[in-house]
Design a protein that fits this description.
Shape: globular
Number of domains: 1
Radius of gyration: 12 Å
Order of helices and strands: HHHHH
Length: 78
């Protein structure tokens, strides 16, 4: 979203909140985890198209679609 602010609209159109209740930007890792949940519910071809629009690589997308992505992502951050 830093490089292409227009992506925020795409992310919101997928049902992922980019700001908290007070209007402050959410942590991008939380946004990424929520995007992974959305991508996991979509057919792969559709998730691939959205990922490409957002600049997410295929390998990252495949990792994001895994059920344990949030847990593994949290471990990586620690």
């Amino acid at each position: 979203m830093r490089v292409n602010p227009g992506n925020e609209g795409v992310i919101r159109s997928l049902g992922v909140q980019t700001t908290d209740a007070s209007g402050k930007a959410r942590d991008l890792s939380a946004v990424m985890i929520d995007l992974g949940k959305v991508f996991a519910k979509q057919p792969i071809y559709l998730a691939e198209q959205y990922a490409q629009m957002l600049g997410i690589s295929e390998n990252t997308l495949l990792a994001m679609r895994q059920p344990d992505f949030a847990q593994k992502f949290g471990q990586q951050q620690s």
